[in-house]
Model the fold of this input.
Amino acid sequence: MRLPTFKKGIHPDDSKAFTNKKPIEYLPLPDEVFIPLQQHIGVVGEPVVEKDQEVKTGQVIGKSEKYVSSPIHASVTGKVKAIDKFQHPLGMKVTMIHIERSGDDVWEILPIIKDWQNTPIDELLNRIWHAGIVGLGGAAFPTHVKLAPPKEKKINTFILNGVECEPYLTADHRAMLEMGEKILTGMSIIMRVLGTENGYIGIENNKPDAITAMRELTAKHNSALKVVPLEVKYPQGAEKMLIEAILKRKVPTGGLPMDVGTVVNNVGTAMAVADAILEGKPLTQRIVTVTGEGIKEPKNVMARIGTPFKNLIEFCGGLEDDAVQLYMGGPMMGFAQYSLDVPIVKATSGIVCSKDNSVTEMRTYPCIQCGSCVSVCPMNLLPTRIASLAEMSKWAEAEDFGIMNCIECGSCGYICPSHIPLVQWIRVGKLRVSELKRKQVA
Amino acid sequence: METSKEVQEKAKPKPDPRDKLFKSEGKPLLLSSSPHLYTRDSVPKIMWTVVITLIPAVAMAFYYFGTPAIIMIVACIIAAIISEVIMNKIKGESITLGDGSAAITGLLLALTLPPSFPVSGGILGSVFAIVFGKQVFGGLGYNIFNPALLGRAFLQASFPVAMTTWTYPQTAKYAAVDVVTTATPLGLYKFEKILTNIGDLLIGNIGGCLGETSALAVLLGGIFLLIKKYADWRIPFSYLTTVFIIAGIFWLVDPASYADPLFHLFAGGLMLGAFYMATDMVSSPITPLGAWIFGSGAGVFLMVIRLFGGVPEGVMYSILLMNAFTPIINRYTRPRFFGEVRA
Done:
């Protein structure tokens, strides 16, 4: 029988064998951390600590009163050395709180909520907000906002996203194997907040051990939850694709999963929710897959937010001599880095480094209208058309052809035999189109 | 007890991983925008695969028409390659031979020529195909019409007699024996109502162009292309189906005056046209619906020409006509966006 999946998409080599058998290792606490105030989608908070102030692990160091925002917590115990602009892994220089670690790891935790089954939902939501939880799959959207959709949007289904469709990454995979109980608890809390009993766990079929593990756990704790093995295909981890794969529902153009009564959360997010409620720990650490041909000993590493990349890389044996490219995230949507001083942030799912032989400068040929990009685009767009419209600065026409629907998954760029930078042009176009729209509104 | 070597090791400053990148190797980390992963497919790979899949058809041409067939094929390819280089030079751009598209044009053109056609004519057609069929539009990817077919149309208009003089195939062994002229199965049927049997059409023991005599050889390469997804299956499928249905209707109504649908499928250049000409990526639509329209449109045009036209064969014109419609088909067949609700 064919496993469920979404339409179109691509089949890149998953390259997960580097780390999928390696248990999660805890990174020794770093001597210093750089914690950006912006690690989420939404309003950027203000620092609430001062230079030279002593901080404890878990203490709030930056926040905003605005709803669509997420507080930032100290990830080590120590002294604030500076509040200044530092390099962010997404390329820009942003305000970060530089903390120098001193001595023991002393936690400042929030009150523990043991009896979450009977706690008012507002209190749970409030806790998720104050624990600084955002989507850990990569988008970093504040979770408390996602879990509180407007009244008119009735949520009837929750999907736990254990797809991890990006090649190389195995953080979620290992988490499901080693911390499955906690993930399931987090899922139950989220489902209680959403008021739905209908839960699915979507896992791609290249993680049979994770499927078995989660099936055993659901059988033990809550047999109503359905573990759904999915055909291996990229970008299945994208919310809209996952909802299509499991529920056969299509999120309307320009809409959100809640428009089809669904909320999707990553397994890492569920784990963070469980930590925040049951242990009172805010989001100060995450699992990062440090992998690729260019890393000497690829590993899955549990690291504190704000730890510089170089600490993780050193912990994994360092870079190979002929390492040439390093990016945050998977190879399909990751951000290339030129400095190893940048810190890991809440959205850092992996650090992937490639070697000389896997990075090639490719010659671009003219578009031969082969339609490969059309046949893989999960959003059913005409990537070559939109990209060339963007290249010609025809913004209005690009919008007519649905440029704003692009989820930038990179499938078109992956498949293009002419190696045309399709997604790159589309990104330029999306930026311009949204700028123009903002101007029209203003 | 630490050995002196271990002490030395310890004394060394811990290497900063960046040093390797910035200092000893002298190479900085490369920056590029995602995706960082690509398929191994490339334009040259696709083009050269198409050339390779035509080997069975070329082999059959050699088997039936001997060395002259090979001379014609080689001459057309060389002429195409030389014209491409000259055009590159004139336009002041880098040489584009590596993409393999010029070689395909020459090869496909040669396969659509009658065995007795003069080699000089083939060369002329090949030059026309590259210069006016492709390069004047801007080169690979920008041409509106299939260059090889445009070259053939030019030859058809310029040398109508030579382009419709057919010789009966002789196996290469007897190539020296005097050539006997004959007609193509479509011509035989159209003008003399003589029906050629399907077996001969399949193996190619008939009069016809170099590459169109054996439907089976073309089919073999064509199916390989479909499996490799280097050709859109919708185009040959809809093209052939439309031909089959239209021919079938006429045959059912009046079997005495119309040939059966299988005959129409395997006679003439339909197989070569359906699998190699109509599926030319550049001049066919990129949308799935567009491909259906393109293929069935070509099928309708073909049957109109075959059944009611003054000439027995119409594959070339049917595809060229649909090539002209490709831009407009692309425009009006935009796929529905994911989750789009159309009013």
In short: Confidence is low (pLDDT under 50) at residues 15-26, 172-177 of chain B. The CA atoms of residues 8 and 247 of chain B lie 88 Å apart.
